[in-house]
Amino acid sequence: MSIDLLKKVPLFSGLKEEDVRRVRAISTPRQVHRRELLFSDGQEARGFYVIFSGKVKLYKISPEGKEQILHIVSAPDSFAEAALFHEGNYPAFAEALTDCQLLYIPKREFIQLIEQNPQLGINMIVSLSQYLRRFATLIEELSLKEVSSRIAKYLLDLSIKASKEGKNPQEVELDLTKSQLASKLGTISETLSRTFGKIKARGIIEVKKNKILILDRKSLEEIASGLK
């Protein structure tokens, strides 16, 4: 993995090139295949990952066996760095949704770099605060919002992402399968399909396989803001 790719990772933004080279020097490239488990909930955390291509899901499993997706990670981002400071164990499962190119960064050597570089320490604080905000939002949505509101927000988030990438924000492509999306939104596939159908019947969206055409953005925003 090149130094230029590492510089694009938010965790390493603002670092001098020599410091990025130090991170690269302690890291190991990894190629993983779809459905490969990277680590398990409760497993000893000996390092974290940077993703350069593909997607990884972070998830928990309830005592009843229900899966709840916490986050979908894609390039260029890092994940599991919070586990370095969490009693030494990973707090969730991580599984590759696609074939992925990763960089594995060991815990002990990375903490030594943090001790030598204040900027890296600041970046870690920012990264962890973003995770905290993301999970606070997830808890709010799962506990307070109807499935229709979660779906609407998900579509709007995809629309914003498409706009930033220079694509048509009115036509978004689902980045997860139906079962994966249901897990992410805290519901089941049947309920997800019914809710999509109800929103479509109101003329707010049009569904074309894995693409969604947003016909009435205002109404979609109103659904997204709704509480139980």
Please describe what this structure looks like:
The chain is of the alpha+beta class. It folds into two domains: 3-143, Jelly Rolls, CATH 2.60.120; 146-225, Winged helix-like DNA-binding domain superfamily/Winged helix DNA-binding domain (Arc Repressor Mutant, subunit A, Orthogonal Bundle). It is 43% helix and 24% strand. The protein has eight helices and eleven strands. It has helices at 3-7, 17-25, 107-116, 118-144, 147-164, 178-184, 189-201, 217-225, and strands spanning 28-32, 37-39, 47-53, 55-61, 67-74, 77-79, 93-96, 100-106, 171-173, 205-208, 211-214. The protein has a four-stranded antiparallel beta sheet. Strands 2-7-4-5 form a four-stranded antiparallel beta sheet, with helices on one face. A hairpin with a 2-residue loop joins β10 and β11. α5 (147-164) packs across α8 and α6 crosses α7. The longest helix is centred in the middle third of the chain and has 27 residues, at 118-144.
